[in-house]
Amino acid sequence: MALKVLILGGTSEARRLALRLLPDVRFEARLSFAGRTDKLADPGVPFRVGGFGGAEGLAEYLDREGFHVLLDATHPFAAQMSRNAVRAALLSGLPLARLEPPPWRAAPGDRWIDVPDMALAAQALGDEPRRVFLSIGRLELAAFGAAPWHDYLIRAVDPFEPALPRARVIAARGPFALNEELDLLERARIEVLVSKNAGTASTRAKLDAARQLGLPVVMVARPSLPDVPMLADAEAALVWLELLHGVEMERGV
Ligand code: NAP
C-alpha cells in the first residue's frame, strides 16, 4: 500500500518533492498551502488550501484523512506552522521531518549585518535616510514603520498598497537571476538590502549582486524552532520517505 504523505508547502522545494513523488506508486502525497497568494498557480499535484485551525486541527485532519507521515516544507520563517506541525505529529503519533535548506553563510566580500528579528533590522538601517531594498515579503513590513524616513523598494509576490510613507512595491515571483538583481539594485540606486536568511537557491542572487556592488545586507536570522529531523532538499526527503516506506511495509501499512 502507498505511504500517505502530507507536505506542508508554500516553497518551491515542497512542490519539487511533490512532483517527484507523483509517479511513484509507493507514495500518495498531498501538498498543503496556507492560501496567502492571490492567484495560486496549479502545482500539478494533489493539493488543499487553507489553515487547519491550529495544531489540534492539523492532528484531526491527519487522522481523518489517514496520513502516515507529515513533512514540514514551509518557509523557514513560517514558524507558527512549523511549531503546529511538531505538536500535531506528537498528537497523532506520526513521523515528522522538516525540509529546509541550510541558512546562507556570508562569503568573503559580503557586508552583512546580522540581526535576530525584523524590529532590529529596521533599527540597523540607522538615523540617516537611505534607499532600502526590502525583499522580506509583506507580512512583516510593520516593523519598518519605526523608521519611516527611509525610501523603501519592496518586492513581494502580489501587488499591494504599502502602509509605509516612502515606499514603492514591485510584484515579482522568483527565481531571480544575478543580472536582473544587479540591474534592479543599480537602477533603484539601492544603498542597503534587508533579507531573511531563507537559504533558498531561487532568491540567493540578490546577495551575490549586493556583494558585487559592495552593498551592505541586513540579514535577519531564522526563528528558532523545536528540533526535528532535518532534510536539506527534495532528494534527502525522498531518501527519508523511502526508508519510512520500508519500515511501514514491514509493519503492514
Ligand atoms: P505561519 O505564520 O507559520 O502560519 C500561520 C498560519 O497559517 C498557521 O498557523 C496555519 O493556520 C496557516 N498555514 C501556514 N502554512 C500553511 C500550510 N502550508 N498549509 C496550511 N496552513 C498553513 O506562516 P506564514 O509566515 O504566514 O506563511 C504562510 C505560508 O507562506 C507558508 O506555507 C510558508 O511556507 C509560505 N511562505 C512564508 C514566508 C515567510 O517568510 N513567512 C515566505 C515565503 C513563503 P492554522 O493554524 O489555522 O492551521
What is the radius of gyration?
20 Å
Helix content: 25-40%
Encode the helix/strand succession as letters.
EHEEHEHEEHEEEHEHEEH
Biggest beta-sheet profile: 6 strands, parallel
Structural class, from helix and strand content?
Answer: alpha/beta
Number of strands: 12
List of distinct ligands in this structure: NADP nicotinamide-adenine-dinucleotide phosphate
Shape by Cα distribution = elongated
Rounded to the nearest angstrom, the distance between the terminal CA atoms is 6 Å
Number of helical regions: 7
Mean pLDDT: 95
Describe the structure.
It contains 7 helices and 12 strands. It is an alpha/beta fold and 253 residues long. The strands form 2 sheets. The protein has a 6-stranded parallel beta sheet, sandwiched between helices. Strands 6-11-10-7-8-9 form a 6-stranded parallel beta sheet. Helix 1 crosses helix 7, helix 2 crosses helix 3 and helix 5 packs across helix 6 (205-213). The chain is elongated, with a radius of gyration of 20 Å. 32% of the residues are buried. The mean pLDDT is 95.
